[in-house]
Structures are given as structure tokens and as C-alpha cells.
């Protein structure tokens, strides 16, 4: 995971690939974070193409930094 705060727009909508790039993690790690409740997709019903808000990326980063 990156040590620097993500630079994404809090109002933006991001794909799995972009979320992984912002946090510096793999898609498998993102799946674990989603299952653990650290980050929540905007469309939880669509498991094949989840989208994430920029604010949820920033919130996830803050949660993981305090662990």
C-alpha cells in the first residue's frame, strides 16, 4: 500500500484498476478489503464490474493507515 494519500477526486467514480493504482494494491487485495468492509462499492449488486467513489478510496486509505 502507498504511504502517500490518494490524489483522486472525492466526487469521482473509479474502476477496480484505478482504485488499485491509487492505493498501490492488487485486485486480490482490493477484494479482501471489500470483503472485510474497509471499502464499499457504489454498486454492490454488480459483482462483475464494481465502481468505487473517490471518497471511499480516501476513507479506506485512512482506515488502513491506522491499523
Automatic annotation (TrEMBL):
It comes from the Bacteria. This is Helix-turn-helix domain-containing protein. It comes from Bacteroides finegoldii.
Amino acid at each position: 500500500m502507498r504511504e502517500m494519500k490518494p490524489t483522486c477526486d472525492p466526487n469521482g467514480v473509479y474502476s477496480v484498476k484505478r482504485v488499485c493504482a491509487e492505493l498501490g494494491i492488487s485486485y486480490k487485495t482490493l477484494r479482501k478489503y471489500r470483503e472485510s468492509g474497509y471499502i464499499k462499492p457504489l454498486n454492490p449488486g454488480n459483482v462483475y464490474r464494481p465502481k468505487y467513489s473517490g471518497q471511499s478510496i480516501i476513507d479506506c486509505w485512512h482506515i488502513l493507515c491506522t491499523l
